[in-house]
Amino acid sequence: MDRHILFYLVGRIILVNGLSLIIPLTAGLLWGERGLLYFGPSLIAAVALAVFCLYRGRHHKRQVGAGEGAWYMVLVWLALSLLGMVPYLIAGVFTSPADAFFESAAAFTTTGTSVLADGGAALPSSLLLWHSLMGWLGGLNFILMLVSVMPLVSGCFGLTLSVHQSVSFSPMVASMQDAARKVGCIYLAITMFSVFLYWLAGLSPTAAVNQALLTLSTSGGDSLFDFFRYDSRALEGAAALSMLLASGNFLLYWKGWERRSLKIFLHDAELRYFLMMFLGVSAVVSFHLWHYGVYDGWDNLRYGFFQVLSFISTSGFASTSMESWPEFDKYVLFLLAFIGGCIGSSTGGLKVMRFMVLFKMTSRELQRTLHPHMVVSLKIDGVPVDMKIVSRVLSYFFLVIMTFFASMLIISLAGVTPIQAMAMAVGCLSSVGSTMALFGVTDVASLPAWTKVYCGFLMILGRIEIFPALLVIQHSVSYVWRRW
C-alpha cells in the first residue's frame, strides 16, 4: 500500500474542511460571540494535521488503489468527526466526549439526529452555523468520494455513473479531481438555488442559508426549523423542490448542463423509477391519511407528499406532527428511508439503482425457472449489467441486512424497545435520524455513553457503505498476522 498517496488525499480533504472553520469563526466575531475561542483551536489543529499529512504525502505516485481508497474513506470520516466535536467541547456545550462525538458524526454523515435539547435552540448562532456547515460539508464529501474513490473500493457504483454520465473512473488522481470538480460545482449551484428559494419564500438571508445547507445535504432531521410551526405552503414548496433536486444524480445534472438538454433526465431509468415510486407512495399515504380522517381535505395530500419526499430523500424534515399517523404510514416512511434516493446524490439508504438491479435479477431468475433454456440478460437503460456488478450489489445488500440485525441487537442492550432499536439501527445506517423520532426515540442524550459512541461509528459505517471498513479490517489483520 502506498502510504504517501493516502497521506496526500487525507491531508487535502482535512485542509478544505478545516479551513471552513473560518466561516463560523468570522460570523461569531461579527455577531459578538466568542468565535475565536470556539473555533480557533479546531482551525489550528486541522491546518496543522493537514500540513503534516500533505508533507508526508508529497512524493506520492498520483495513483490510488483499492486499499488506499478504503483507508482514506475510513480515516477521513473519523478525523472529521473528531475535529468537528472540538468546538462543542471548548464551548462547554458537552461535558461528555461521547455526546460531542455523536453530534459531530451525525452532522458530518448527514444523519440528522442530535443529543441536544430542542435541537440546540440555546446554542450560540455561530455554533448553529457550524452545525449546518458540517452537514453541508458532509454531503459534499460524500458525493466527492462517490465519484472518485468509492468505485475503486466497492466497484458497484460504476453501473449508472460511468456508463451514462460519461465519467471514466480512473485510479489517477487527475481524473478523480476532474470528476470531483464537476460534481462539486453542481452541488454548490443547487445550494445557491435553494438559498434563493428559501429567501423567496420569506426566510431571512441567514435562515435561508442555514436551511439550504441542511436541505442539500439531506441532514434536516435535527433542524430547529420545524415547518409545521410556520404553516407556510411557500416554505414547504421551497423545501420540496430542494429535496427533490438533492435526491437526484449530480453527475446526471452535469451531463444535462453540458448538453443543454432535458431529454437526458427522461431517459434515465433510475430517475424515472425514483419519481414513480415517490408519486405512487405519496398517493397511497395521502389516501390512507384521508381514509382515517387524520387531516381535512387537501391537507392529506399536502402532508402526505411532503413527508414521503422528506423520508425518501433521507432529509427527515417534518411539516406536521406524525404522532397521530396510523402505524401503516409510519412503516411506509421507515421503508422509504431504507431505500433512499438516486446513486450520485447526497442521500443515504441503499439507493434506487441497487433495488432496480435486485428486482430485475429476481425477475430474470423467475423467467429462467419457468423457461430453463431461455437466455435472459439483465439490462438497465438498454445497457447489459455485468454479473460482477450484480454479485457486488447482492453482497452489499447482504452486508447491510447483517449489520442492521447485529446493530439492532447491540443497541437493544441500552434498554430501548425492539422497535426503537430497529429505528436507531436503520437511522444510523441510512443516514436519516428521523426514523428514531418516528418510533419514539426522542431523548438520545439519556442513552448510555457506549451506545452513542457505537451509533457514531455506525453512522460512519453506513456513510462509507461498509465495504471500505471490511477492507481496512482485512488489511489490518493480514498485517498483524505477517508481523506475528
Relevant terms:
two-stranded antiparallel sheet; 484 residues; mainly alpha; 69% helix
Summarize the structure.
With 484 residues, the protein is mainly alpha-helical. It has helices at residues 3-19, 22-30, 35-56, 66-90, 97-108, 125-146, 150-153, 158-164, 173-200, 205-216, 227-230, 233-246, 250-259, 263-266, 269-291, 299-312, 327-339, 352-370, 387-412, 418-430, 434-438, 449-464, 467-483; strands at residues 379-380, 383-384.
> Can you tell me the residue ranges where pLDDT is under 50 for at least 5 consecutive residues?
156-172
Amount of helix: 55-70%
Quaternary status: single chain
**Number of DSSP helices?**
23
Structural class label: mainly alpha
Order of helices and strands: HHHHHHHHHHHHHHHHHHEEHHHHH
How large is the share of residues in beta strands?
Answer: under 5%
| Shape assignment | globular
What's the mean pLDDT score?
A: 85
Output the strand order for the largest sheet. 1-2
Distance between the termini: 19 Å
| Quantity of strands, as a count | 2
Q: What Rg is obtained from the alpha carbons, in whole angstroms?
A: 22 Å
Major β-sheet annotation: 2 strands, antiparallel
Question: Could you describe the 3D structure shown?
Answer:
This protein is mainly α. It is 69% helix and 1% strand. It has a two-stranded antiparallel sheet with strand order 1-2. Helix 1 packs antiparallel against helix 3, helix 1 runs parallel beside helix 4 and helix 16 packs parallel to helix 17. The protein starts with a helix and ends with a helix.
